[in-house]
Design brief:
The complex is a heterodimer of chains A (119) and B (107). With 119 residues, chain A is mostly beta strands. Chain A is globular, with a radius of gyration of 13 Å. Chain B has 107 residues and is mainly beta. In chain B, strands 2, 4, 5, 6, 9, 10 and 11 form a seven-stranded mixed sheet that branches. In chain B, strands 1-3-8-7 form a four-stranded antiparallel sheet, with no helix packed on it. Chain B is globular. Chain B starts with a strand and ends with a strand. Classes of the chains: A mainly beta (119), B mainly beta (107).
C-alpha cells in the first residue's frame, strides 16, 4: 500500500520560506509517476502547486512558479516543497500526492499538514 | 487556465436519494476529468478517474459520465457515510485545476 506523509514546521513567519517534505513508503519514487503538492486554505477549495518526476523534471502552477521549488531525493524516497516569501494568503493545509501526470489523477494522498503564516 | 465550474455548491439530501453533481470545463478536456471525495478533516480520496472509470474499493453507487466539457458524478442511493465535499479535477493542461467543490449534507 502506497503511503505518503508530510512533515515540516506548522508555523512560518511572513516573508520567510515554507519548507515541507513528503516521505513515501510502499512504492519507490524511482519506479515512476510524478509526485505533487496541493494546498487547501482553511474552508476553501484545492489548489495544485506543482509536481516532480523522479528524474527531477518539474512543472509548476504559473500563479506560484516564481516562489516554488520542488525537489526529489530518490535515495530517501522523498520529495520536498519550498515556497518563498510567504504571506498570510499561503496559510493552508498542504498535501502531497502521487500524480499520474498529464491526463492522470492523484491516486494516493498524504494526510496533510497545516502551515500557518504568522508573526 | 481551464476553469472547472461545479454545481450545485451545496445539496441537502435524504438517505437513499440519488445525487447528481455536474462539472463544466471552460474548454474541452477529453476524458481527463477525475472526481474526489473529501470528508471533514480528511484528505481527498479518488472516487472516479478518466470521467467514468471506477476505482477499486469505491462503492458501486458512485459513477461518472461525460466527456469534452460536461461531466457528471452520480451517487445512487445516498448513504449517511457519503456526507462530504466532492471535487472534480482536470489534468488535460497546465495548470491542473480543481472545481470549487460541492458539499453534500444528509438530511
Amino acid at each position: 500500500q502506497v503511503q505518503l506523509q508530510e512533515s515540516g514546521p506548522g508555523l512560518v513567519k511572513p516573508s520567510e520560506t515554507l519548507s515541507l517534505t513528503c516521505a513515501v513508503s510502499g512504492y519507490s519514487i524511482s519506479s515512476g509517476y510524478y509526485w505533487g503538492w496541493i494546498r487547501q486554505p482553511p474552508g476553501k477549495g484545492l489548489e495544485w502547486i506543482g509536481s516532480i518526476y523522479h528524474s527531477g523534471s518539474t512543472y509548476y502552477n504559473p500563479s506560484l512558479k516564481s516562489r516554488v521549488t520542488i525537489s526529489v531525493d530518490t535515495s530517501k524516497n522523498q520529495f520536498s516543497l519550498k515556497l518563498s516569501s510567504v504571506t498570510a494568503a499561503d496559510t493552508a493545509v498542504y498535501y502531497c500526492a502521487r500524480d499520474g501526470g498529464f491526463y492522470g489523477d492523484f491516486d494516493y494522498w498524504g494526510q496533510g499538514t497545516l502551515v500557518t503564516v504568522s508573526s | 487556465e481551464i476553469v472547472l465550474t461545479q454545481s450545485p455548491d451545496f445539496q441537502s439530501v435524504t438517505p437513499k436519494e440519488k445525487v447528481t453533481i455536474t462539472c463544466r470545463a471552460s474548454q474541452s478536456i477529453g476524458s481527463s476529468l477525475h472526481w474526489y471525495q473529501q470528508k471533514p478533516d480528511q484528505s481527498p480520496k479518488l472516487l472516479i478517474k478518466y470521467a467514468s472509470q471506477s476505482i477499486s474499493g469505491v462503492p458501486s453507487r458512485f459513477s461518472g459520465s461525460g466527456s469534452g466539457t460536461d461531466f457528471t458524478l452520480t451517487i445512487n442511493s445516498l448513504e449517511a457515510e457519503d456526507a462530504a465535499t466532492y471535487y472534480c479535477h482536470q489534468s488535460s493542461s497546465l495548470p491542473f485545476t480543481f472545481g470549487g467543490g460541492t458539499k453534500v449534507e444528509i438530511k
